[in-house]
Amino acid sequence: MFCTLICCMDGRFIHIINNYIRNNYRYDYVDTITDAGPVNKIVYEDYLQAVEDKIVLISINKHKSDHIFVAGHSDCAGCPIDDETQKGYIIQSVKMIHEHLPDIAVTGLFVEESGDIKVLIDFL
Predict the structure, then answer these.
(1) Cα(first)–Cα(last) distance of the chain, in Å?
(2) pLDDT < 50 positions in the chain
(3) Do 10 and 73 contact (CB within 8 A), yes or no?
(4) pTM for the full model?
């Protein structure tokens, strides 16, 4: 059973997020799409269309992914802003993805420097 994760490439957090998803949402496999601070790119660039068209739809169509997670984290070099602003970007990104793919569950996650993960928004 597959899901899709769009998150930062920062190696400090990828394994934490993947494990959290596997343990809390019971997915066996997490198709992980990484970039430096993708949440601000989703909100402000044409990144969402490019990612959806080329990568997310492969995960959905080929692997039958039925849930997309969008995650950000504290101290992000690719999105060098305060945590509250980045959380807002995650929420906005999730809403945008949900509008484009209304039949797919979408969840926004934020990882604190401590490794704690908070669910910011869910469309299940």
Answers:
(1) 16
(2) none
(3) yes
(4) 0.92
